[in-house]
Write a structure and sequence with these properties.
single chain, alpha+beta, 5-stranded antiparallel β-sheet, 35% helix
C-alpha cells in the first residue's frame, strides 16, 4: 500500500477512516472514505477520536431530531465505559444559556468545554487523508495544518473568499460536508472547510514549508 497517507513516513499496513467512522450512527453509511495508514496513525489517536465523538454528539444532539440520536447511541455509552472522559467532562461543566441553531435562547442549562486538542488532531488527520483521496499525493510532515473552528459568519466569509470545490458529502444523511481549494502552482497549499451535522464548522489551512511565514489566515 506504500507510505502512510497520514504521517507520510511509516509503511501503510491498514486503512483508516477519514473522518473517523465513530461519528456516524449505525448502520454505517456506505460512502465512508478510507485511506492507507500505518498502525500507529490508525490506532494511536483513538482516544482523541472518542473524545471528539462524544463532544460532537453532545454538541449536535440538541439541535434537531436527526442528530438527537447521537447522544443515546454514542455519547452516553462511551461515557459509561470511559470513566476518565466522564470525569473530565463533569469537571468542565458550567452554567450556560441554551440556544437553538438559530441562536434563540430558550432556557438556562449546563455546558461543557470543547476539547480543542482532540478536535484539532481529528480534523488534521481527516484533511491529510482526504488530500490523498482527492489528489493521490501525501501532504507529508513538511506541510503544516492550521485549524480553527468557524461560526456562521466565518463560514460564509470563508466560502466567499476561496474558490472552493462543490460540496462533498459523507453519510447517508450528509452528516459530514466538506469543500476544498488549492493554490495554483502550489498544490500543497490548500484550504478545507468542514460542516458536521449542519451545526459545527471547521477550517483548515495547509501550508508547505516553503510558504510558511508568507500566509496567515485567521478565523
Amino acid at each position: 500500500m506504500g507510505k502512510c497517507t497520514i504521517c507520510g513516513k511509516l509503511e501503510a499496513t491498514t486503512r483508516d477512516h477519514v473522518p473517523p467512522e465513530g461519528i456516524f450512527s449505525k448502520p454505517l453509511p456506505s460512502n465512508l472514505i478510507t485511506v492507507p495508514a500505518c498502525n500507529l496513525c490508525n490506532n494511536g489517536t483513538s482516544i482523541h477520536d472518542e473524545n471528539f465523538k462524544v463532544l460532537l454528539s453532545l454538541y449536535c444532539g440538541q439541535f434537531n431530531p436527526a442528530t438527537a440520536g447521537l447522544i443515546g447511541s454514542h455519547a452516553l455509552p462511551t461515557l459509561a465505559r470511559n470513566q476518565k472522559l466522564n470525569r473530565m467532562l463533569i469537571r468542565s461543566m458550567h452554567p450556560a444559556y441554551l440556544s437553538s441553531s438559530s441562536r434563540i435562547i430558550y432556557e438556562r442549562g449546563w455546558a461543557a468545554d470543547w476539547d480543542e486538542t482532540s478536535a484539532t488532531i481529528v480534523i488534521e488527520r481527516t484533511v491529510r487523508g482526504l488530500y490523498f483521496h482527492h489528489f493521490n499525493k501525501i501532504l507529508g510532515e513538511e506541510t503544516e495544518c492550521r485549524i480553527s473552528q468557524l461560526d456562521d459568519d466565518d463560514l460564509e466569509r470563508a466560502i466567499s473568499i476561496f474558490r472552493v470545490s462543490q460540496k462533498n458529502f459523507i453519510g447517508e444523511k450528509n452528516e459530514v460536508v466538506y469543500m476544498y481549494a488549492q493554490q495554483e502552482g502550489q498544490p500543497l497549499h490548500s484550504v478545507w472547510i468542514f460542516e458536521f451535522y449542519g451545526v459545527l464548522w471547521f477550517f483548515c489551512h495547509t501550508i508547505p514549508q516553503n510558504l510558511r511565514g508568507k500566509y496567515e489566515i485567521i478565523y
